[in-house]
Amino acid sequence: MNPATTPKPTNSTAPVLCLSWELGISEWKMAFSTALGQQPRRRTIPARDLARVQKEVEGAKAYFDLPSDARVVSCYEAGRDGFWLHRALCAQGIENQVVDSSSIEVNRRARRAKTDRLDAGKLLDLLWRWLLGEKKCWSIVRVPSPEEEDRRQLHRELMTTRRDRTRVTNRIQGLLFAQG
Q: What percent helix, strand, coil does the chain show, rounded to 5?
């Protein structure tokens, strides 16, 4: 198993600040807690504001009376933002996990509210369960190197361009056929 994705067991003497993210286009929702089931401290910051992220982490440590050198573990769902945030958080000393969004459990029978605020809280609970040793609560995504990520991006752009070309060609042919 990859040591970067293996949870380090938490013990009662070492304080841990857990942080979950919901990443939006214009703003990010953050949820902090120091224990499973604890009411999270929620914050909303402008997207991509890494200086503000560091201030919020320091503020959360003060709020929960944690030492400044307390371990910080965070997670967010893999998506549009790619992996630059993972690398930036690791550079700031934050242990981060990128989660496969399709692996997050949901109750399919119950009606479910879907908001970024609720999703951040759900991710926070799953992060605590994972830290406490429950390995199957979600799947962790392997973070590619920047070079691998760049290679993937070129391929995806090419595939998108080909689909766009096909869509436009089909539309033009349909219009011409309709006109005789």
A: 45, 20, 40
Structural contact between residues 19 and 125, judged by C-beta atoms closer than 8 angstroms:
no
Mean pLDDT on 54-66: 97
What mean pLDDT is reported for the chain? 88
Question: Is the pLDDT reported for residue 97 higher than 60?
Answer: yes
Pair 36, 73: CB distance under 8 Å: no
* pTM listed for this prediction: 0.77
Burial class of residue 9, CB neighbours in 10 A (0-12, 13-18, 19+):
exposed
pLDDT for residue 103 = 87
CB 97 within 8 A of CB 140: yes
Residues 6+ positions from 14 with CB-CB distance below 8 Å: 71
